[in-house]
Amino acid sequence: MSKAGARSARTDAAGSHLSGEPAFLAVGKLRHAHGLHGEMLMEVWTDFPERLQPGTVLYLEAGKNQLSLIKRRQHPQGLLLTFEGYPSPELVGQLRNQILYVRSNDRPSLAEGEYYHHQLIGLMAMRDNGKPIGVVTGILETGASDILVIHPENGTDLLVPMAETFILAIDLARRELTVHLIPGMVAEEADLD
User: Fold this and answer.
1) 27, 52 contact by CB (below 8 A)
2) How far apart are CA 71 and CA 84, in angstroms?
3) If you placed Cys at 86, which of 59, 92, 93, 164 could pair as Cys (CB 3.0 to 4.6 Å)?
4) pTM passes above 0.85
């Protein structure tokens, strides 16, 4: 997840589904059966693994197949999950290497100024003088602050930290963010005009 001014985030603070957002979000990848009672090891991809509680409905193939979670427990390599209708390692083993999804409108709300990564990807980055820079194509997760990868129409990608110094505003409704560039962030200083 990203937070402007601190860390970059992975939808709007209220958690509502905006046009253009995915209907499903990946939360992890099922790895292999574990033990004799139908548990499956899941590699955790979500920032909110605590939301995966008994009764949670999960989906395979972004909504095609539905699974009901009946049990979960921690494992050093992720979470061990048990699904309704999969009581044995042979049955649950059929789910191996599948990606698990939740509906995007079921995701947890974020604090103000935090964003889910999928909300930032595809935003048009604009300079604080109103000129377009390019489109956000990726997010690099670092220890201190996430870094937006902005792909301009011409030239090389720009790396912009998700910090208040550089990210002045994020408008999800308009699909734009306003960026303050400083000398040295682009190859040609003339690009800052």
Assistant:
1) yes
2) 9
3) 92
4) no
- Distance CA(193)–CA(186), nearest Å, equals 11
| Domain total in the chain | 2
- Beta-strand ranges (E) seen in the chain are 2-3, 24-34, 39-44, 57-60, 65-75, 78-83, 99-103, 114-115, 124-127, 132-140, 147-152, 158-161, 167-171, 176-179
Q: Is the model's pLDDT at 137 over the cut of 80?
A: yes
How many angstroms separate the CA atoms of 3 and 105, rounded? 20
- 126 in the same domain as 83: no
Rg (CA), the chain: 20
Q: Output the domain CATH number for residue 81.
A: 2.40.30.60
> How do residues 29-87 score in pLDDT, each as one tens digit?
999 999 999 999 999 988 889 889 999 999 997 667 899 999 999 999 999 999 999 99
Domain span at residue 151? Answer: 121-192
Beta strands 78-83 and 124-127, pairing class: unpaired
**Domain end position, chosen among 52, 81, 106:** 106
Tens digits of per-residue pLDDT, 104-135? 776 666 777 788 787 888 999 999 999 999 99
